[in-house]
Design goal:
There is one protein chain. The protein has helices at 104-113, 133-143, and strands at residues 8-11, 14-20, 28-34, 43-44, 49-56, 59-63, 66-70, 75-78, 84-88, 94-101, 115-117, 146-147. With 152 residues, the protein is mainly beta. Helices cover 14% and strands 39% of the residues. The chain starts with 7 loop residues before the first strand and ends in a 5-residue tail after the last strand. A 7-stranded antiparallel beta sheet has the order 8-5-10-3-2-1-11, covered by helices on one side. Strands 7-6-9 form a 3-stranded antiparallel beta sheet, with no helix packed on it. The mean pLDDT is 93. This is Cupin type-1 domain-containing protein. It comes from Aureimonas endophytica.
Length: 152
């Protein structure tokens, strides 16, 4: 299934549904359904601003050295190029709205690194597949997203 045939992708414990991804809009808007305990590895990107609005659940956000715990209605903006991550710290799936400007990096990354799902899918896979870390890292590198993984 190519990216033009769906609006929904599964990536590392998260369903990502594009609500807006037209490059001419100047932003992308994504609704995310995040499994308990799921969230991306710390990362940074120099070309897309990013902001998160918590719709449901409780999330912990790491922005630089700061840790924020936000529930429904909470909002956080990531300064351009700042290291950041989030994790659903609740016991049930949580929902986020994610805004990226101009969004090109995230449109490409989500649709290339994620597994295409039928349009409008809104249930997390059961059982939850393990993330393909090599694919995640390589797709991030190709699109200008740096993952900050611990030294092994």
């Amino acid at each position: 299934m190519s990216e033009t045939q769906t609006d929904t992708y599964f990536l590392a414990g998260t369903l990502l549904r594009f609500l807006q991804r037209d490059p001419e809009a100047g932003y992308c808007l994504v609704e995310a359904l995040v499994a308990p305990g799921a969230g991306p590895p710390p990362n940074r990107h120099p070309t897309d601003d990013e902001a998160f609005h918590v719709l449901e659940g409780t999330f912990e956000f790491g922005i630089g050295a700061e840790i924020l715990r936000l529930g429904a209605g909470g909002f956080v903006r990531v300064p351009l190029g700042e290291a950041h991550t989030f994790r659903n710290v609740g016991e049930a799936p949580g929902r986020l709205l994610i805004v990226n400007t101009p969004g090109t990096l995230h449109v490409n990354f989500f649709s290339q690194a994620g597994e295409p799902m039928p349009p409008g899918t809104w249930r997390l896979p059961d059982p939850m597949p393990a993330p393909d870390v090599a694919r995640l890292l390589e797709t991030g590198r190709r699109n200008g997203m740096e993952f900050l993984l611990p030294e092994s």
